[in-house]
Design brief:
By secondary structure, the chain is of the alpha/beta class. It has four domains: about 5-15 and about 95-220, Rossmann fold; about 20-90; about 230-235 and about 325-460, Rossmann fold (3-Layer(aba) Sandwich); about 245-325. It is about 45% helix and about 15% strand. It is built from 21 helices and 16 strands. It has a six-stranded parallel beta sheet with strand order 5-4-1-6-7-8, with helices on both faces. α9 (about 180-185) links the parallel β6 and β7. α1 crosses α4. It is elongated, with a radius of gyration of 28 Å.
Length: about 475
C-alpha cells in the first residue's frame, strides 16, 4: 500500500541539544561538590519516574526534584533551583542538518508530516522547540506523550497518532533512531525508517541523514506531481513601501486629474468611505468591478461618467500610489527565472482593482516571458477565494488543478480558495502585515509557510523532461 503519512521522532532525529539533560545535570552537581552519580539501586525507581513523567502524570520539575534526591541533594531550595536550571536547559535545541529542507521536500511530494514524541515536557514547550528549528509549520500533528498519557513503544501512542491524521498503519511510516521505538512502530504495522540510529536498530529502511530520506524508496511516490505554480502579487511578489512624498504627489495628481475643487481632506475622506464600502461588498460577493465601473459607479458617482470613464486606468494607479510605492521583493526575479528553468509553468492569480499595473510591472522588470497566464480579478470579474478564478487560471495554462500550486500571503482567503479549487499544494509567504489584518484559523492550514520567495526553490526541484 502507498505511504501517505510520515511520523517522526523528534529529539535526535529533527533536533538535538549540545548537552543531554542528564549530563548537564550531573555536571551541575559536580560543580556544586556532589558526586554526580546515582546509585545502581535507584535504576528501577528512576525508570518508573521517567515513565510517569512521559505519561504526563508528574511535571518535569517534579521529575527532576525526585531525581536530585537520588543524586543526594537534600535541601529542597537547592533542588528547586537546580530543577529550574535543568528544565530551562531543555530549550537549547538546534536543528539537525537539512531538517527544514528535507521536511519541505517530503511535504512537496504530498506526504502528511507528523511527530510522535516522548517527552516529560508539555506540548507548548515542544512546539516552541519545533519553531526554533524552523519546522513547526511543516508538521500536521504532534502526538505528545504527556498529552496522551502513553509513551513509546506502547502501541497506544502510535495508534492515537494514526487516528488523528486519519491513516491506517499500512499507510504510514515511522522515522526514528531508538531501537525500541522503531520496534513499537513496526509492531502496529507501520513501515520503519532508521536515521541517526542505534547500533542494534532494526528497520525496513535506513538513511544516513535527513536529506537521505528523500532517497528512501517508499518516500519517492509523489501524490501530486506539480506542473504549474501560480503566484499572488500584493505582499507576495511585491510589497508596499511608505514613501510620504510619493503618496502626497499621488493625492495631488488624482485631484487634479478629476478637477476636484474641494479641500483635499474632504475629497479623500469621502473617497475612503466609498472605497471601504466597495471593498466590504466585493469581499462578501466575491465580485470585482472593472476599473471603469469602480470609478463611475462606486468611487466617483457624482462626477459625469463620460468624464471619469476614460480616466479610470490612470485614477486606479494614483489611488494605489496614494498608499505607498510598490516594489518587488529582492529575490523575486531570480526565483521566477529559476522555477521556469526547472520546468514549471508559471502564472499569476491576483485580487486587484488595476487592469494594467501588474502587466506593466512584469514588463518593466523583464519577467513577462516567464508567465503563461495572468488572471486578475479586475479583468475576470471574480475574486479569491472563489474557486472559479483558480479554475480559470488552470484552464488557461492547460494544467489540471491537482497538478497546480499556489503561493499567496493570506492565511484565510488564499488557503480557502486553493483548497476549494482542488489545487495540489498551497504555500503561504508569511507577511506580518497580512496576518495582523486576517489571523489564521484552525480550519485553514497551508502545506508550507515560507519567509522568502527563494524558499520555493527548496520545495520545487527540477522537473524531468516530459514529466
Amino acid at each position: 500500500m502507498t505511504i501517505k503519512g510520515i511520523f517522526f521522532d523528534a529529539a535526535d532525529v529533527l533536533y538535538a541539544r549540545k548537552e543531554p539533560a542528564v549530563k548537564y545535570a550531573e555536571r551541575l552537581l559536580r560543580e556544586l561538590g556532589y558526586p554526580g552519580v546515582m546509585a545502581p539501586a535507584d535504576a528501577e525507581r528512576r525508570k518508573a519516574l521517567s515513565s510517569q513523567a512521559k505519561g504526563g502524570h508528574i511535571s518535569a520539575e517534579s521529575y527532576w526534584d525526585e531525581l536530585l534526591k537520588m543524586y543526594g541533594v537534600a535541601p529542597a531550595n537547592e533542588r528547586a533551583a537546580l530543577s529550574e536550571k535543568i528544565v530551562a536547559q531543555s530549550d537549547t535545541v538546534y536543528g539537525l542538518p537539512d531538517v527544514r529542507e528535507a521536511l519541505q521536500a517530503l511535504k512537496a511530494r504530498g506526504f502528511t508530516l507528523s511527530i510522535i514524541t516522548d517527552t516529560i515536557h508539555p506540548m507548548a514547550r515542544k512546539m516552541r522547540w519545533l519553531e526554533q528549528v524552523g519546522v513547526a509549520e511543516l508538521v500536521d500533528y504532534v502526538a505528545c506523550s504527556t498529552e496522551l498519557g502513553a509513551h513509546k513503544p506502547d502501541p497506544a501512542i502510535y495508534l492515537a497518532a494514526l487516528r488523528q491524521v486519519g491513516l491506517t498503519a499500512e499507510e504510514a511510516a515511522f522515522v526514528g533512531h531508538d531501537t525500541a521505538e522503531l520496534a513499537g512502530a513496526r509492531a502496529v504495522g507501520m513501515k520503519t525508517v532508521a536515521v541517526f540510529y542505534d547500533a542494534d536498530a532494526q528497520a525496513d529502511y535506513y538513511a544516513e541523514s535527513l536529506a537521505g530520506l528523500l532517497n528512501v524508496p517508499i518516500f519517492k511516490n509523489v501524490t501530486h506531481e506539480i506542473e504549474a505554480i501560480f503566484l499572488d502579487v500584493g505582499n507576495t511578489l511585491r510589497i508596499v513601501l511608505d514613501d510620504p512624498p510619493f503618496r502626497a504627489q499621488a493625492r495631488t495628481d488624482l485631484m487634479a486629474l478629476v478637477g476636484a475643487q474641494e479641500a483635499e481632506e474632504v475629497f479623500f475622506a469621502r473617497l475612503e468611505a466609498r472605497w471601504n464600502a466597495y471593498r466590504k461588498a466585493s469581499k462578501q460577493s466575491l465580485v470585482e468591478a472593472s476599473e471603469r465601473e469602480l470609478w463611475t459607479v462606486h468611487l466617483l458617482p457624482d462626477y459625469p461618467a463620460e468624464q471619469i470613464g476614460p480616466l479610470a486606468g490612470r485614477l486606479t494607479r494614483l489611488w494605489r500610489d496614494h498608499d505607498g510605492r510598490r516594489v518587488p521583493r529582492p529575490d523575486v526575479k531570480a526565483t521566477i527565472i529559476e522555477l521556469h528553468h526547472r520546468g514549471y509553468r508559471l502564472g499569476i492569480i491576483a485580487n486587484t482593482i488595476t487592469e494594467t499595473e501588474i502587466p506593466d510591472w512584469m514588463a518593466a522588470d523583464g519577467v513577462t516571458e516567464y508567465f503563461d497566464a495572468v488572471v486578475l480579478s479586475s479583468k475576470v470579474g471574480m475574486r479569491k477565494p472563489d474557486p472559479r478564478i483558480y479554475w480559470e487560471a488552470a484552464q488557461r495554462i492547460g494544467v489540471e488543478p491537482a497538478r497546480c500550486a499556489y503561493v499567496g500571503d493570506n492565511m484565510v482567503r488564499d488557503v480557502e480558495g486553493t483548497r476549494a479549487a482542488g489545487f495540489g499544494v498551497m504555500i503561504i509567504l508569511y507577511e506580518p502585515a497580512t496576518v495582523a489584518k486576517e489571523p489564521p484559523t484552525v480550519e485553514h492550514k497551508p502545506d508550507f509557510i515560507i519567509r522568502a520567495c527563494s524558499e520555493l526553490l527548496a520545495i520545487f526541484p527540477g522537473r524531468s523532461h516530459g514529466a
